[in-house]
Amino acid sequence: MASLLRSRHVFNLVTRISGIRSINYRANFGDIKRCFYEYLVKSEACNPFWNTNRFLATLGRLQHETTTEEERLSPQARLHSLDKALYRLDLDVRKLGRIARKDVEDIFAEIKHIGTSSSTQSLLLIRCCGSLLPDELPEARTELVNEIWNKLIELDCQMDVSHYNALLKVYLENEYMFSPTDFLTTMENKGIQPNRVRNDMENAKNILEVMRNAQLEPGCDTYCALLCGYAEKGLIDEMKNIFQEAENNDVYLMDKDILDIVYTLAVNGHSMYVDEVLGKIRKLAGYNQDCINIILKLVNNKQEDVGYKLLKTMPRTSLPDGNLAPAGNFFIRQMVRCEVAPSKILDICKDMKKSGLNETSVLKATENTLVYQKTDHALQFIDELHKEEIPVRCHYFWPIFIALSRQKDENAIYSVLKKMIEYGCPANYETLTDYVLPSLNISDTNIVVEKMKELGMTVGSVINPLIYILLEKNETSQAAVSIEQYPVRLNAILLTKVLATSCKNTGDLESTLKILRHLTDNPERLADTVQNVDWCGQFLLDYLSVCKNSTDTLENVLSRMAEKDMKISHNTVDVILNRIKDGVNDNITTLLEQMATSSLQGAPDDIESTSFAHPREMNVEELENHLLELKSKGMNTRGVLRRLLLLHCRKKNVDRVQQIITELEEENFSFTPAMYAQIMELHITNKNLEEALKYKKIIDETDKTFAIDSHKILNLATLLIERNHYQEALEMIKNHYSNFGVKESKDFLQRNVWRLLTAVANTGNVDHTRELFHTVVTECAFTTPTNMVLGPLMKVHIDNDNLPAAVEEFKEIAKRYQQTPWKGELFRKLIHLEDTESLQKVMDLSSEVHGEMNTLYDLACCFIECGRVKQAKKILETPGLRARNRRLESFCERYLQQNMITELEDLVNITRDLFDIDRDQMYYYLLCGYAKVNDVKKALAVWTAMQDENVQPRAKTLRFLAEFLQKNGEEVPFVIPEPQSEESGSGKMNFMEYIKAEDVDKALEFKRSMEDRGEKLNLMMSTALIEALLRKDRLLEATNISQDLFRHQMFPKSQVLKFLLNRLARAGDVETIKNMRSVLPSSVLKLVSFDNFLANAYINSDRTKELLAELGQDLSESKNRFPSGGILGVMKKHPELENEIVELTEKYANQEQFFIPKNMLWVHYFLEEEYDKANQIFQKYRNDRREVVKPCKKCVERKELVFNLEKLKMMVFLKGGKLSKK
Question: Scanning 266, 407, 736, 743, which has the fewest C-beta atoms within 10 Å of its C-beta?
Answer without folding.
Answer: 407
